[in-house]
Amino acid sequence: MSEAIILAHGSGGRLSHELMERILLPPLANPLLDKLDDSAVFESSGYLAFTTDSYVVNPIFFPGGDIGKLSICGTINDLAMSGAKPLYLSLSLIIEEGLPLNELKLIIQSIKATTEKAGVKIITGDTKVVNKGQTDKIFINTSGIGAISPNINISGSNAKVGDDIILSGTIGDHGMAIMSQREGLKFEISVESDCAPLNEMVSQMILASHKIHSLRDPTRGGLATTLNELAHQSDVGIVIEETKIPIKEGVRAACELLGFDPLHIANEGKLIAIVDPHDTDKILASIKSNQYGKDAAIIGEITDAHKGKVVLKTKFGPSRLVDMLTGELLPRIC
Amino acid sequence: MSEAIILAHGSGGRLSHELMERILLPPLANPLLDKLDDSAVFESSGYLAFTTDSYVVNPIFFPGGDIGKLSICGTINDLAMSGAKPLYLSLSLIIEEGLPLNELKLIIQSIKATTEKAGVKIITGDTKVVNKGQTDKIFINTSGIGAISPNINISGSNAKVGDDIILSGTIGDHGMAIMSQREGLKFEISVESDCAPLNEMVSQMILASHKIHSLRDPTRGGLATTLNELAHQSDVGIVIEETKIPIKEGVRAACELLGFDPLHIANEGKLIAIVDPHDTDKILASIKSNQYGKDAAIIGEITDAHKGKVVLKTKFGPSRLVDMLTGELLPRIC
Fold first, then answer.
1. N or C: which end of chain A has fewer CB within 10 A?
2. Which H or E run contains A27?
3. Residue A106 has pLDDT above 80, yes or no
4. Would the pLDDT of A187 be above 80?
């Protein structure tokens, strides 16, 4: 077998089968995937969540992760943000001719490790190969299906005046890790992506309380963009306090150096929870008990003032409006 | 709004929202999609089929279709080949910076028309934008969920010795349409892609008979590759007769001109049905009653000889082994 991907690996013919049988299927094998029909078939009843994301991150290997880990975590997290328990994923690869097979193997190993950690299964997939120069290394789409218990109603539309806003940890880690890698910048303190599956954290939160109104992971566009989306979707105002937002010293320094607002920098292992204030302490404790939630903090609240808008109380006293990201700081961040 | 896609349309921030609200959501609106949470939520019970495909076809507009129509038909057909009724699709776009907005609008209109024709809904989606030159125009991933009635058991593993093999129409139309467009070849007889949703045809077939053992759509790699997959999956032999395989004169001529074997050319609106011979006539009649099945024919049968292999009885008399596609005839065919 060739040491790099060639066009015939995407032909649907013999070499596609070889690629599947030698590289893709063995690490990911499970009874539903192994049937190799055009669709995978599973049984279910009740409410299901369905989501999709394509990952085009550049570089494909970065401090704290790679495109494989990211493509599993991202879709798992989108399911978890609806209060769903992630069950099944699809995996679709678009590969540039010439990608070294060893890199593909590393990515598949990373996918395997992340699905095992999160307790989900890949049950259907697809591989396309595109001529050299017509795409960049590898893009991955994962779609996902999760199960939602009948008593759960978590949505970006459910934030209520008086609710507390919890953030599960430090902001900006993923974006600055990618940036540092891409530009070859050396920061004094190294920065790693926070890329992580949050489904276990969400399960623990739901066990702790049924008064979680909204969950959202602040990925592209950062905390600022996601809070604006929530304010808009629930038609409420949001106030957050700068001094309460956790941020690592290395990320803060890198942002200052480059003139970035950390509120606009992508995260891949953090969530925002908007919760009934009666249960804030219980929910915060459950987040902090999770390995990915140790730095969780209450960062603000929902208000009936300035509906649809997000206001930041700065560390120096005055407040300012925080807008969605405009323009593009970091293309191909995820 | 800019007349072409810019990087900020993929930022997750303000321009991403504008793109969604102005271009993507209005044509595709439905209550599940409109919630705009990280996942769409729906209720279901019983057996579900789940499938995924990324589409990288080049050119993105071709005789008989475009990448939008193809991306809906392809995934609908994969669901239908499991005997599922397609219900919900995801839509994930990877767009090259600089794609004219008008082209994107045409693709979305085509997606809308095809989903409406097939009776499916797009309920979740994603958009990424990649720097100019780092991808080619637009790639689309669609994943799909369909419902399978409890008494249906259709799989590539179910072919039985003595079964008939029905092909729903002419072969090679999609591949040769792409080829003619891409290479600027002028064939004497014009060739159009057969790209079509086959879910209604499959519903009619299932109403006609419960003795459909296997269904498969012969896309990449063509009829030859798909029959080899079925022979392998069911551990049976397959015999087909060259004179019974429907092919349009223009496709035959183009294949002869270019030295292609039409058995290896992709189709996007055809199916192979492997059926109990007692119900062949009923099933064939139901296929012929569908607008996409008028040229359907019985092309061969399942045998206990040469297990795992496909044999073609040629029009001149002798038989030959028909292998999977090796190498790659037409990269980016779908």
1. N
2. helix A25-28
3. yes
4. no
* pTM exceeds 0.90 for this model: yes
With CA atoms as reference, the chain B residue closest to A57 would be B130
Q: Is B3 exposed, middle or buried (0-12, 13-18, 19+ CB in 10 A)?
A: exposed
How much is the average pLDDT of B48-75? Answer: 97
Q: Chain B residue with minimal CA distance to A74?
A: B38
* DSSP code for B23: I
Judgement on whether residues B82 and B228 belong to the same structural domain of the protein: no
A:B CB pairs within 8 Å: 289
Band the pLDDT of A189: cuts 50, 70, 90.
low
User: Any idea what the CATH number is for the domain that residue A189 is in?
Assistant: 3.90.650.10
A2 pLDDT band, cuts 50/70/90, is low
**What count of other Cβ atoms lies within 10 Å of the Cβ of residue A2?**
11
Q: Over 60: is that where the pLDDT of A1 sits?
A: no
Tens-place pLDDT, residues A150-173: 999 999 999 999 999 999 999 999
Query: Which pLDDT score is estimated for A186?
Result: 66
Asked if residue B33 is part of any domain, the answer here is yes
Q: Let me know whether A271 and A210 are in one domain.
A: yes
* B195 and B104 inside one domain: no
| Chain B residues lying within 8 Å of A82, measured CB to CB | 37-39, 41
Question: For chain A, what is the domain count?
Answer: 2
Backbone angles phi, psi at B30, to 5 degrees: -160, 160
Q: Which residues on chain B are in Cβ contact (under 8 Å) with A51?
A: 38-40, 90, 124
A131–B135 C-beta distance less than 8 A? no
- Interchain contact, A92 vs B125, CB within 8 Å: no
Cβ neighbours, 10 Å, residue A259? 7
Residues 290-319 of B with CB under 8 A from A: none
Question: A59 preceded by cis ω (within 30°)?
Answer: yes
A244 shares a domain with A291? yes
Q: Which domain holds residue B230?
A: 164-322
Dihedrals phi, psi of A19, to nearest 5 degrees: -60, -45
Instruction: Decide if A225 and B12 are in contact by the 8 Å CB cutoff.
Output: yes
In terms of domains, do B111 and B168 share one?
A: no
DSSP β-ladder status, A138-148 and A121-130: unpaired
- Residues within 8 A of B (CB atoms), A 156-215 only: 156-157
Q: Does this complex have an ipTM over 0.85?
A: yes
Q: Flag whether pLDDT at B264 surpasses 70.
A: yes
Q: What is the pLDDT of residue A329?
A: 78
Chain B touched by A38 (CB under 8 Å) = yes
Nearest CA in chain B to A324: B13
- Beta carbons of B43 and A46 less than 8 angstroms apart: yes
Residue B184 and residue B138 in one domain: no
